[in-house]
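ok so for the tutorial part 2 we go from a plain amino acid sequence to predicted structure tokens. step 1 is just haveing the sequence, like this:
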Amino acid sequence: MMPEPNICVPSTETELVDIVASFLAQDGYRVWLEVPNMGQSVDMVAQKNRWLTVIEAKLKDWRRALGQCQAHEMVADFVCVAYCSFAIPDSLYKEITRRGYGLIHFSKEYKTLQWLVHPRQNPNVWRPQRQRFISLMGSIDNAR
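step 2 — the prediction. this is what the tokens look like for a chain of 144 residues:
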């Protein structure tokens, strides 16, 4: 893997969110940031066609990301974690795979971003909450 030109290692979750949002937008997703969901906030919501993907970004506490992702299962077709590190802990990889979540990894060593695990379609969507969530997304004007 070659380092990406002009990409710096993110030092904050906000920087990681911006890098991942740009990565997804280049792949044809429309991306919203900080979307409210049942008293919480989703770091990113990426939409491609009719499919919604929620992404929680973390620099260290990936277990917290998994808890946040679980809360967002009611609204998203796909659920993902974006994680910045030198290496992926085996326990994170196993848990991501077990839950059917996706994993986007920013390598601190190579300064690259890639999908390590593609998510499986989430079977836990609750349609009434999803409709409320989509309505909220329509009122947010930070889409990329």
